[in-house]
Structures are given as C-alpha cells and as structure tokens.
Amino acid sequence: MPDPEFFPPQSSLPGAAAHFGAYVLADAAARARDIEAAAAVPSPVSSSPAPPSVDVPPSADVPAADVRTPTAALERILRGPSGLGTASLHLTRREEPPTPTPTPEAAPTPTPASAPPEGIPVPGLYHHPVPEPDPVRVEEVSQRIKTWALDEVDLYPDDWEDQFDGFSVGRYMVACHPDAPTVDHLMLATRLMVAENAVDDCYCEDHGGSPIGLGGRLLLAHTALDPLHTTREYQPGWEESLRSDAPRRAYHSAMEYFVQMASSSQADRFRHDMARLHMGYLAEAAWAQEDHVPEVWEYLAMRQFNNFRPCPTITDAVGGYELPADLHAQPAMQRVIALAGNATTIVNDLYSYTKELASPGRHLNLPVVLAERENLSDREAYLKAVEVHNDLMRDFEAEAAALSAACPVPAVQRFVRGVAAWVDGNHYWHQTNTYRYSLPDFW
C-alpha cells in the first residue's frame, strides 16, 4: 500500500491531536516548508531498516500508553514521508557508497576503516539491527576527531590514546546520524560526544573523578557551554579557567563549533539538556557519598537525567534542519525524547555491566539496584533489567507513532525518525564495541 500523502494541517484536527493547537501546527508547517526548501539533499548514506510492522488501531482516540507494540505507523515514520515536496526529507538508501567528484587538486580519499567485530547482542533485548555505517565517513570522522582532540584542545595525554581509539566514536556517530548531510554536520555531534565523555571520565569516573566537590567542577564546566556574563574585572579569570582544564577546553570548543551551524534555539535546547545531565551526575554522586542504594524507581528517575538525552535531542541540527521550538517543547515530543534517552541508557547499563563490576568500588546500574532492592540473584536482576529496557523501547515506539499520527508536520516526522535512528545506532555501537564491553555469562 503506498504511503499516504502529507497535507498541511487542517482546522478540524483529530481528537488525539487537538492539544497541539491549530495555530502551533500551522505556524510550524509553514516554517518546516521554508526549512525544507532551503535544505540541500543529503549525500547518500545508510539508513536503518524499519522495524517489523504490526497492526495498530486506526482510531485517534486510543491513548498512546495503551499501544504497547511496534506499529505500522512507526514503520511509516522510519520510512519517511512521501508525496509532493517531501523528497529532501528522506534518509537516502545506501546501495552504493558516496563517490566524490575527482578533481586534479582533490585530497586522497580516506582509506575505509576495517570492518568492526559484530559482537553479540544481549539475548532477549528488543532492538533493531542497522547496516554497517559508511566506512569512508567513519574513517574521516575518526581522523578529524582525533586531530581535534590532540591538536585543538589537547584533551588527553599520550597514554590514553588506546582508550580514545577503542571508543570508536567515528563509527558511533555515523551509525547514529544516517541523515547527516555532510561530515561537518557529523562532527558537531562527535565533538560534543567526546567532550561529554571527557567530563564524565575526568570529573565523575575512571580518570580521577570523584563525587567530592563534583558540584563545583560541573558548574564551571557548564559555563563552557552556557557562557558567563560578568564584569570586565572578573571576565579574564573565567576565560583563563576554560583554558586551564582539558574537559572545559573540550566543552568550550565543541560548543563553539555547534553554535556556528545550529540555530540559537537549538543551542539553548542543548544547554538545557546538558543541565539535566549534570543534575543527574550530582544525584548519583550524592548517593555514592552516602553509600546509598536507591529504590528502583529512584534509580530510574536519576537515569532520566543522567542519560544520553543530549545526543538524540540534537538530531535535527546534525541533520541540517530545525524542529521548531514550540513543537520540540510539546509534552508529547518531550515524552518521546525522554523515553528514547531512558531506553538507550539502560542499554549502556546492560552492556557495561561486567566492565563496571571489574572497576573499584560499587557502580550503580539497573541490575545492581534490582538485585539489592528486589532481593534477586545477579542473573535474575540482569534479566529483569532487560525486561525494563524492552518496556521502555515499546513505549517509545508507541508514543512516537502516536505523535507522528497526531502531528503530520514534515519536521516532526523527520525528527522522530532521526531519534529512532539514534536509538538503533546507539545499540549497534554498544553491541559491536568489544574493546569496551563484554556480556555476563547468564545464558
């Protein structure tokens, strides 16, 4: 059956969409058309296969929370819009890798990276496989991010190089952003990812991190993203602090690149989500200082803030378009983004489980909290954490399908599709990164 045509929002919205308001939809649709007309068609890159299709009731009166399985509507989201004027919104298929136009002065094409190990997915984990990311793009992003980290921000000492390479951030970001029109757009996400990881490692975790004094360090780090506005007398001291600390240098530089290509609204959205992340770091640090194991619901609340949310929330900036701020702020969109962040973060809990067990001290993750609070064996707790992840994933997909049906605006369609691609790419990276992760022997 062909995809339905997308038409401008009508004044008689279905009941499930009424809360958006006709004026919001009409204004957003007009801006989305302007953005679509100005955007260049993305270069050929890979796209994630659509998840299996199952039926969903067509009635708009069915609450999204009652739809607990992947839907035909979600398949349509991931496949993308069709009809007149929507060609530039599609993730183009990867039958052939992009072929640069040769010129006499053209730089040599980077050598494609070797195929990564496939890894083993967590048994029973609900996920969607993705194609191997474009190896030419992976290699170029990997080279450029290492040059940035070494030469521009002096991010890490020589003896951390193996860990930096093992992180495989180029493969990560290419897999998560299949609709990025250029490598420059991919680099926006890649620099921010590396900077966030540096702050986590150096302030919170493996490389000198500590819960003691974390609040002060994170506050200063946040000013690298959200600049200090102070008097002339005290401005130089703040500027010097940015240059004196590697994680702050990385934050500051990555954000400077981001604001050059993103809109003011997208930049402010990212700052807001980074404040959420830092608040989550502080909650976990407080529990560590008190040697407190939270209730399961408390842990999941913390993980809604200490999670991957800042990464998928910039999917439109990396894709070279903008989801209007009023549509991004709608409760239904916020729920979709939150569920995506929560599900992807539990993926990290599951794949990093053995790594964290081997580290000094007690690391909170969902299996550890479930074992403690629900008196489960390690195996039982891990398998229940898989179930929690699967529930979050199915809720994410149901809410994404409901939102797409309720708000047929091209920018919304593309953004939701981009968030779903990020969710799939995040799982792919965790599964295939055998340098960092291995699974427990619970099967």
Helix and strand topology:
Elements: H1 22-38, H2 72-79, H3 135-152, H4 161-167, H5 169-176, H6 183-204, H7 214-222, H8 235-244, H9 246-261, H10 264-290, H11 296-305, H12 315-319, H13 325-328, H14 331-351, H15 353-357, H16 366-373, H17 378-406, H18 410-432
Account of the protein in words:
The relative contact order is 0.16. The chain is globular, with a radius of gyration of 22 Å. It has 18 helices and no strands. Helix 3 (about 135-150) packs across helix 5 and helix 16 packs across helix 17. With about 450 residues, it is mainly alpha-helical.
- Compute the separation of the termini in Å: 41 Å
Mean pLDDT equals 81
Quaternary structure annotation? single chain
Helix content: 55-70%
The global form is globular
User: Please, how many helices?
Assistant: 18
Rg to the nearest angstrom?
Answer: 22 Å
Defining key terms:
disordered N terminus; 18 helices; 0% strand; mainly alpha
Short synopsis of the structure:
Helices cover 56% and strands 0% of the residues.
